[in-house]
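Query protein
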Amino acid sequence: MMIPYSSILIGGFTVLAAGLWASPALSARVEIVLDASGSMRGSAGELNKMEAAKQAVRTTVEALDSSAVVALRLYGHRLPSEPQEESCRDTELVIPFGPLDRQRFIAAVEAAKPLGQTPIARSLEQAAADFGELGDEPAAVILVSDGEESCDGDPAAVACAFAERGLDLTVHTVGFDVDAAARTQLQAIADCTGGEYRDAKDSGELAESLRQLTQAELLIDKEREAQGQEIRGGNGFASAVPITPGMYRLDHHQRPKEYDYFSIEVTPGHVLRVTQVAYEVGVHVSGDQFTENKHQSGAGIAIHGPDQGRIGSSQGIKAGDVATGGAAVTFGQGGTYYVLVGQEIPSVGGIHKNSPITVEIVDQTDAGGGTDAGDSDREAVAIEPGEHRAWLQAGDKRDVFSFAAEPGATYNLRVRPEADKPVFEMLVRDEDGVDLAKGKAPNKGAAVRIEALEVERAGPVFIYVRDTNYERTVTPYSLELSAEGN
């Protein structure tokens, strides 16, 4: 997907801030990665470092455009510093990429507590993975840290390896009241990727550094506004022009209430998302003549399903407005979907040909298995120990997973929703249908755990996950499985 990305890593915090569109220029997707290591309990003037970092991030997020697409990663926030090996694995994508929800975002930041180690290298690796497959546009990470790596990792080596792996990823670093050793390490991380290093001695300097670096990364140069492949659609469903994920612009100005028809293949378990940003100037149409008009601009997207019925539409009526259409393609609903580009409000005028169009297809198959976890043992998705991302689709009663269990081993399981409404329940059962353990989250948005699970014989064990506060919406969550012994 040819979409620019930025990330902010806040030492003790990895902060990746995201904003996909801002008026009048395009802006990058940003992930804020906050380091909540124990050292952030130290003082920074009248506030401790964690409170100062929270304030700086809150100020940054509140200033973002409402159309920004933002993700949040925390590390060091769940486990104390000892045992060190476990604490050094503590890094979590708390809010995945999606439209900015300021209230949810700020609440997640405010809930962070400084507890553990500082796994900067591991968090940099995970931050790079959060972007998925990068396109030609460079990505950026802004790392703000109050200290150096504490987990035997080499963050500078990780950063230097990005280029060797073909990742066009720039890492900026901000040292928050750091000593000479930490400053040297943070400078090396930035130097490896052509990034910039800044010092911040107090909360005010930290907030200003974040603001400046974020704004610089969110805005793309104006000459890139017209970026994207030029395309022209058909004039109906039968003549729809096939497209694939990428960035586009029309090769012509468009009259109001006229539409360019495109088609795209979407497989089950994926989400189609199409966005158009209204250009900074509009167009006035008179006969066959188009005249740029600084007072009006437009954008318009509609999505139709395989049966050609409309799923939804969105309109923008002034410069910088974002029109977004999308469809979550659940299992049994794959096929050809249709994207209609057109402004449906005649008084707005037409759509300027330089209005950028971004087409994305997001994988929402469970645990990366390429399919949806069914609701029976026969449709279970097999998993290995580790952290897996999954979705309860709108029509799912539950998801079923399986793993190969061995006697003598001890297993720990954890399910955590990515929203604050679900109340998750987890049931573990053997291949004979015997219940081995069951747990339920104590409140909405909480994780549910099953720990120290043992089995008497080798064989498949099934994990049943459901939301007892079921709503007909897509519910993302993480599933973690760890094993000890044998």
Observations:
- Residues 1-27, 220-226 have pLDDT under 50 and may be disordered.
- The longest strand covers residues 475-484.
- The CA atoms of residues 144 and 174 lie 4 Å apart.
- Helices lie at 49-62, 84-87, 102-110, 120-130, 155-164, 180-193, 203-218.
